[in-house]
Amino acid sequence: MEAQVQALDQKPLFSRQALVRLIIPLVIEQFLLMTVGMADTVMVTSAGEAAIAGVSLVDNINILLIQVFAALATGGAVVVSQYLGRREADHARTAAKQLLYAVAVVSTVLMVLALVFRQHMLSLIFGQIEPDVMDSALAYFIATALAYPFMSIYNAGAALFRSMGNSRVSMFNSLIVNIINITVNAILIYGYGMGALGAGIGTLVSRIAAAVIILFLLQRPDCVLRIDRLFRPEFHWIMVRRILTIGIPNGLENGLFQAGKLIVLSLITTFGTAAVAANGIANSIASVVNVPGQAIGLAMVTVIGQCVGAQYLDQAVSYARKLMIICYLSMGTMCLILFCAAGPLVGLFDLSPAAAAMAAEVLRWCAVFTAVFWPMSFTLPNALRASGDAIFTMSISLASMFICRVALSYLFACSWGLGMGLLGVWLAMFCDWIVRAVVFLVRFWRGKWKRIKLI
């Protein structure tokens, strides 16, 4: 009875307007972030196939490392959100400062390793590379590796503003990053003919600008998480441990997830050029459909994290339901459009008839499975992570990834198995989604995450 009275006395932490103000900028930001990655590839096409190949190879490594930075940022955002929910602003500011130090140290170490072992890494991961492709890859790798600390600081700062419920800052920062990146690319690639190196410098300059802006905003007097004496390091190991409790499992999950995708990609390359092209285009189109779910997943960390910190667990469940409904409605609408327009969308790209047919086929299948299973597979787990249940989500994600997506890809796709080719790889991915969705939904409704103590 007492619990019911307390629940009635609880004021909602987030109004409908607050949720809208949080989610809409996140959706826009995710679209903008997609264009940053595409800009280098698109603009470097004028420099020839070697430059395109070099940029593409290095981007596979960069994506893997960016996932590590994002994982640490998520760990910090969860801790900070829970402290804000408990109205412990001083502890929240301490956690925010420790997050910035942690990502700066980790990213600097990764930058040094990438710069020292850049050629060995490229040869180890991709095997024998043609000399002109290697030259372009090395030039692009050097410039983008120098950007790692700035990328990580920006990711951490953006996560901190989201934990405050302010996603407009990261949205406008992403817009500025796009403008700077495209401008510098245009000058160096088209004006000075610097090819892959020009694209890398564009990325470096834009990331430096993003980091400087986010640090400036975090030191403003009106910022809830104002960072005082940023350049006078003071380490609180207990706070760092709390951040890493979420960040390490999340980083392992994201990193090994990308590694699993590379294994599957190596299988697809054995199916021929048409299959590789079809897979690349289908992934590019499908990623647009996922944007609302990714944005709502980021919002989930803030909302559920604050509710758990305040011990408003009934509100946490209620907000999770609301956010999942929004996710299903928005992604369902986009999936319906994708299913009906798969053929025309693929037709926008210069693909062979065989590749176009494969891309359209997998996209229609993708539209159906995305509408039903993707939100529970990738958005709902953020509610669990926000409560501190990161080890469980990591364990299930990795087990499902390698058992379903990787193992079943070979069974469904290879000639010694069902021989379904590219479609078999995508069907294996859908099996991964189904397993994740079922397990995460059961975990959420059983409520074990409510008993986890992070702070």
UniProtKB/TrEMBL annotation:
The keyword Transport applies. GO terms for molecular function: antiporter activity; xenobiotic transmembrane transporter activity. The keyword Transmembrane applies. One of its GO terms (biological process) is monoatomic ion transport. CDD domains: MATE_NorM_like. InterPro entries: MATE_fam, MATE_MdtK, MdtK-like. It is a multi-pass membrane protein. Keywords: Antiport, Cell membrane, Ion transport, Membrane, Transmembrane, Transmembrane helix, Transport. Its main location: membrane. The chain crosses the membrane at residues 18-39, 51-79, 99-117, 137-160, 172-193, 199-218, 262-282, 294-313, 325-349, 355-378, 390-413, 425-445. GO terms for cellular component: plasma membrane. It is found in: Cell membrane. Belongs to the multi antimicrobial extrusion (MATE) (TC 2.A.66.1) family. Multidrug efflux pump. This is Probable multidrug resistance protein NorM. It comes from Lawsonibacter faecis.
